[in-house]
């Protein structure tokens, strides 16, 4: 979860991006530079220090920031360090950096969803239980950020056969953190946790999510299973969950699950 490279408009930020803390340690300590300086992509010095994985530099910058300005400097960095899985820096940025634990990045990442991508249940529990982070965040434009969908996405992308640590994360989000299994249609992530679990080709995960939210349509997940020709999940959703194959979908190329099946038969 590194920062993407963007043009640097200030020599100080160029030095920061290269992580030259140790060679220039005396200079960093004495120089009176703007601690809230940002790149043209909005990256703060604290965020760049996290991206360079330089813990001493990050701590130095946090403690040099005036207390009433630390929130502005540390929120973006918290998302990065949560994705790196560094619990010590997560605690530092929350407790001493006063980082906004519910900040939403441009790519719709939050600190909690970033920790999910690493399967770090310890960091997730700290953010939710001690730092009071919200697992189902709504942005100013009313987009919905589903942490559960992010965890299911990590289950899909990081592990071929699934991961018990990520399954534990998903159980925690549903059973203890009260995350929403049935995310709104206007979701910023758009794909529901159930559809994302279907993409992971995990029948156990699909069954778990379906049992935790019995009263919502699983048609988009069925379409996903049909497109991937996953007969096990198709049978479960149709035979055991009684999914309506004629339900009209609001998103995607196919109007119904039946239409998706017909299209896929044509391409066999």
TrEMBL record:
<keyword id="KW-0040">ANK repeat</keyword>
<dbReference type="InterPro" id="IPR036770">
    <property type="entry name" value="Ankyrin_rpt-contain_sf"/>
</dbReference>
<protein>
    <submittedName>
        <fullName>Ankyrin repeat-containing domain protein</fullName>
    </submittedName>
</protein>
<dbReference type="InterPro" id="IPR002110">
    <property type="entry name" value="Ankyrin_rpt"/>
</dbReference>
<dbReference type="Pfam" id="PF12796">
    <property type="entry name" value="Ank_2"/>
</dbReference>
<keyword id="KW-0677">Repeat</keyword>
């Amino acid at each position: 979860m590194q920062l993407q490279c963007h043009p640097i408009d200030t020599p100080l930020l160029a030095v920061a991006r290269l992580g030259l803390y140790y060679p220039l340690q005396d200079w960093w300590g004495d120089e009176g530079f703007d601690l809230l300086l940002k790149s043209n992509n909005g990256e703060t010095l604290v965020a760049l220090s996290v991206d360079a994985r330089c813990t001493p530099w990050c701590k130095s910058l946090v403690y040099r920031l005036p207390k009433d300005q630390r929130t502005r400097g540390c929120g973006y960095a918290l998302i990065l360090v949560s994705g790196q899985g560094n619990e010590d820096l997560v605690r530092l940025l929350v407790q001493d950096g006063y980082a906004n634990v519910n900040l939403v990045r441009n790519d719709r990442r939050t600190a909690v969803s970033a920790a999910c991508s690493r399967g770090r249940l310890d960091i997730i529990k700290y953010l939710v239980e001690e730092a009071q982070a919200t697992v189902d965040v709504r942005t100013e434009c009313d987009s919905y950020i589903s942490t559960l969908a992010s965890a299911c996405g990590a289950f899909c992308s990081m592990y071929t056969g699934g991961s018990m640590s990520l399954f534990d994360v998903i159980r925690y989000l549903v059973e203890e953190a009260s995350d929403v299994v049935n995310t709104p249609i206007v979701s910023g992530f758009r794909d529901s946790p159930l559809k994302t679990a279907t993409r992971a080709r995990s029948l156990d995960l699909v069954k778990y999510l379906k049992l935790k939210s019995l009263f919502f349509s699983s048609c988009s997940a069925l379409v996903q299973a049909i497109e991937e020709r996953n007969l096990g999940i198709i049978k479960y959703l149709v035979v055991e969950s009684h999914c309506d194959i004629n339900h009209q979908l609001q998103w995607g190329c196919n109007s119904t699950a039946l239409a998706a099946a017909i299209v896929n038969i044509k391409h066999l």
